[in-house]
């Protein structure tokens, strides 16, 4: 199993907007995988993390190929 975690450092006061953008992008690409979202309450503040599990590297690689083909034009 592969667990991919992305951690975002957010400007103070922007956590709710960042969370909404992350959820909207997950829905937009219609990825059926469960995703765990974490917001820090202790330690470094203004941090949001997202985790997704994959069975193996092949599945992980296919995820990023699909995401790249469908990404928002606003993203680099």
Written overview of the protein:
With 76 residues, this protein is α+β, with helices and mostly antiparallel strands. It contains 2 helices and 3 strands. β2 (35-39) and β3 (47-54) form a beta hairpin. The longest helix has 14 residues, at 15-28. The termini are far apart.
Rounded Rg: 13 Å
By DSSP, the count of extended strands is 3
Order of strands, main sheet, comes to: 1-3-2
Mean pLDDT: 83
Give a quick precis of the structure:
The chain is an alpha+beta fold and 76 residues long. The chain has helices at residues 15-28, 57-70; strands spanning 2-9, 35-39, 47-54.
Secondary structure: elements and pairs:
Layout: E1 2-9, H1 15-28, E2 35-39, E3 47-54, H2 57-70
Antiparallel strand pairs: 1-3, 2-3
Task: Jot down its keywords.
single chain; 76 residues; alpha+beta; three-stranded antiparallel β-sheet
């Amino acid at each position: 199993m592969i667990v991919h975690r992305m951690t975002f450092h957010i400007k103070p006061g922007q956590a709710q907007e960042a969370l909404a953008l992350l959820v909207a992008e997950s829905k937009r690409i219609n990825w059926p995988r469960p995703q765990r979202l974490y917001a820090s309450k202790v330690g470094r503040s203004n941090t949001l993390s997202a985790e997704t599990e994959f069975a193996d590297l092949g599945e992980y690689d296919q995820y990023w190929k699909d995401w790249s083909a469908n990404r928002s034009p606003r993203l680099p």
